[in-house]
Amino acid sequence: MSSVRVHRVVEGPEAGPVVVFSSSIGSDHRMWEPQVAPLTERGFRVVRYDTRGHGASPVPPGPYDLADLGGDVLGLLDDLGAERAHFVGLSLGGMTGMWLGAHAADRLASLTLCCTSALLGPPEMWADRARTVRAEGTGAVAEASVGRWVTPGYAQAHPDQVAYLREMVESQPDEGYAGCCEVIERMDLTGDLPKISVPTLVIAGADDPSTPADPHGQAIADGIPGSRLEVVASAAHLGSYEQPEEFTRLILERITEEQ
Ligand SMILES: O=C(O)CCC(=O)CC(=O)O
């Protein structure tokens, strides 16, 4: 499939090193709002985009695969005139990052892989989720998703944020969400990990029920030569949103090392 022109929001100094942020299934570029000011203030060019099938990006009929999602990022970098960029991805965004690391390493300055997995089964669960969303809409999965995105303590203390995140899931196009479920259904990046030569940091949330550090984050860190795993306390699956200070600190550490 040919690449699509993804919706992007670009902030920060034009000449700054480019940092691309890639989102989880069911969210869009807004999930990275907490990272924008800390990075642009330090001179980075922050590029947030909506994965195909999400937010304001095109919604081609699914299924998609990781090569489609990775190709969209390469098209984005070409549009921006960016030869290389730091890449930060969470969950599906991290899977896209691993694909780029294995297939387009020359376009990456570094990789930060948050709350993600190289193999997230069982495949039937993703096929079921795609079927549910095509039949009933993204509203059918919103409450359960947000229940995995933040810890119960955060949810209790921040009901407005929980409502905002739920609305974010509900606003995603049904076909786009389903097409991305089918990416994960068919994904197995385990054989690609040893091929990734880009400097990589893996970050997991200590309370992530979707992609727990053990086994998911640890398997990625074990597989990518020279990478390491950090586990952030009191963070569920959308760790960069729930614990923005610690995730941003780690992201800055990774991208500052490689400038
Ligand atoms: O968040 C993703 O991009 C994929 C994994 C996922 O959907 C986990 C969940 O259901 O919370």
TrEMBL record:
Domain (AB hydrolase-1): residue spans on this chain: 17-243
Enzyme Commission number(s) of this protein: 3.1.1.24
Key words of the record: Hydrolase
Entry keyword Hydrolase: yes
Protein name in UniProt: 3-oxoadipate enol-lactonase
UniProt lineage: Bacteria, Bacillati, Actinomycetota, Actinomycetes, Pseudonocardiales
GO molecular function terms noted in the UniProt entry: 3-oxoadipate enol-lactonase activity
Leader sequence residues: none
Organism listed in the record: Amycolatopsis silviterrae
